[in-house]
Structure formats: C-alpha cells, structure tokens
Specification:
metal-binding (chains A, B); cytoplasm (chains A, B); Resolv_RecU (chains A, B); magnesium (chains A, B); homodimer; alpha+beta
C-alpha cells in the first residue's frame, strides 16, 4: 500500500531509513527497492568501505502525545509528519561537506518542481555559498535512469518558476548538464564516482 | 515534567527541535532554556547572519502505525524513540564539515560516559578520519559552564572505559584541554568563536 503525506508525496517509510536501522537489519539484497532504499544501502557500503560518511536524516516528526508505561518503552500515541527545513542527506567525502536531496519521478520527460520545496532550495544555495557540494539525485523510474544534477540548476529552475517559468525540470537538462549515475550490484547507486569526477 | 527514554536519558522534546520549527516559531527569548534550545537559537542565528549552516537532526522515530483520515493530515498513532546512529548536530562552517554532540550534566565534577553511545563515538572517529571537525559540547548545569572538547578526547576516554578505565570524563579535562564557550545574549552559545580559534 502506498500512503501519502498531506502534500501528496508518497510516504516512503520514516521507519525504514538507514539512520534508524541497526547494522544487522541492513541487508544488501535487491527486491524492488525504492531510490531511498538503494541510497541507504549505498551509503552503508560507503561507510563500511570507509569512503565517505553520509547519512539520511530521520524524518521530522511533531510529537503531540507520549505514553510512559511502567517497565516498557515510551510510546508515542499522537504525532504528525513535518516538512524538513533541509535536504534529506548530508555528510562528508574527501574532507568536503556533501548535501543532497533525492527524488523519484514517474514522469518520463520531466520532474515536477513540487517534489522540492522552498526551504530546501534555500538550504542548498546556502550550502554552496559556504563551500559545500550540493546536488539533487533524480531517478526516472520509467527508464530506471538516475541522474546527479548540481543544485545550481535546481535553483535556476526554481527561481524562474516563481516568475511564470515552467513548473518542472526537463529530463533533457539532466542529460545535457547532469550526470548519469552508474548502477551496479554494489554500490547500488554509485553517486560518489560522479561526485569525484565532477567536483574534485 | 521530565520524561525519559528507555535508556534513562531525559527526553528533551523531539517536537521542539529547531529543524522542525518554522521561522516564526523560533523566538530569541530566554526563559530557562535547555542546552538544546540554546543551541537551536544559536544555530538559527548563525544561519540568519550567514556564518554557518548547522542543524540539529530530527529525533529518530520508529513508526509502527499511521492513520490516514480523509481530508486531514496523516496521524501517527504508534511510534517509538530510536537511538541515533550519529551525532545530533552537523553542517558546514567556512567550507569545513562540522559534527558534534551536545549534552548537559548535573554532576559538578564529571560527565558520565553513558551520555554517549558506541555508535556516536565511532561516527566521530570516522568524521575526523575523513577530514571533518568533530567535538562535543558539554554543559555543567551546576556552574552553568559550557565547554567544547575535541572528539579525540571522548574517544580516548571511551576506549579506556572498555578496558576497565573510568566511566566518566572529569570536568578537569574540559578545563585543561577543552574550551569554555562564551555565553552571550546572542549568539547564546557562541561555539563557532571557539571552533574558529581551535580549528582554523
């Protein structure tokens, strides 16, 4: 069952993010994984092979009520999903701060800008201004192609959309100015290979 | 009311972290704030004055059950606190990756090592190995002194404790090898002033 946030985005399982799993829970098997799952496995691999330290942040939750039963774990009984102020992923690679957002789209030829939000675009502008590496990873599920695109392009399209420009980023832009990420068995989505070529 | 995690640590409000607040919710007033609240206000100030981009990560939550009422927000009705794999705070300052954990202690002369956990210590070792800046911020609430201490010292005490060494870090170590963080009206806990002196 696919479930949805109030903003219409599919819920991809705040309870399944890498950050919240113990080592033994993270397996390398492939059984119809989402981009998020693929990235979590990839990040785990990068950590285990000591190439980088990059994590997905936990899903922000607003907690309203918690029960504290005696002799058992505190139980949250009322809480809501919140929109994050930042991107989902950050960390360090070769001494550099890395920051990115990852999205899937079912559209063949574009990704709607509503997959991102204003705080994220502002956040990525800040990151770049402070000397970090910022990008988006977008998977076009129809073709199973996954691209890395520098955050500057997102910012340009975002800003243009605010003054009447198109409300999506065409796949052609990813093909011309982005970088196809090689997909393997392990690492699954080898985005650091692209990062190394593009930013170092 | 002070509430506690299953591990005995006080719950400092996952619903109050900066990351989950909108701009208008973050005020600069001071009314008996915790170290976490002070750091959130401080980080907000750093972002607004464009000095750094550092955030507290959301509290990791394991979601067990979600209700999807028609025409209203998805409601989490069963969830539990999880232990984070990483530290609570990270970001970028002057092009450098910054990573730290912040803790308060009510003990006058030491902070128990049980305030940290193995994953965090390993995480900080990795961060330093990859060229990042890693430290802990510890507030001794009795004296209201807050110190910054390089993560290497935590690692040394942690590792020693595993082979019979003491289970706490003495305040004296903070005084001799750490750095007292200046406290002002704004920024509240000006740890970047220390970072700038120590690491740049």
């Amino acid at each position: 069952m696919t479930v949805f946030y109030p903003n219409g985005q599919p819920y991809q399982g705040g309870d399944r993010s890498f950050d919240e799993k113990t080592d033994s829970e993270v397996a390398y098997g492939h059984r119809g994984m989402t981009l998020e799952e693929d990235l979590n496995v990839t990040n785990r691999y990068y950590i285990e092979t000591d190439q980088a330290v990059i994590y997905k942040k936990p899903t922000p939750i607003q907690i309203v009520h918690v029960d504290y039963p005696k002799r058992s774990a505190a139980k949250i009984t009322e809480a809501y999903f919140r929109r994050a102020s930042t991107t989902d992923y950050n960390g360090i690679y070769k001494g550099k701060y890395i920051d990115f957002e990852a999205k899937e789209t079912t559209h063949a030829h574009y990704i709607p800008l509503k997959n991102f939000h204003a705080h994220q675009v502002e956040h990525m502008k800040r990151i770049k201004r402070h000397g970090g590496i910022g990008f988006i990873i977008v998977k076009f599920t129809q073709s199973s192609e996954t691209f890395l695109l520098d955050a500057d392009f997102l910012a340009v399209y975002w800003d243009a959309s605010l003054t009447g420009g198109r409300k999506s980023i065409p796949k052609q832009l990813f093909q011309e100015h982005g970088h196809l990420i090689p997909q393997n068995y392990l690492p699954r989505i080898d985005y650091l290979r692209v990062v190394k070529e593009v930013y170092f």
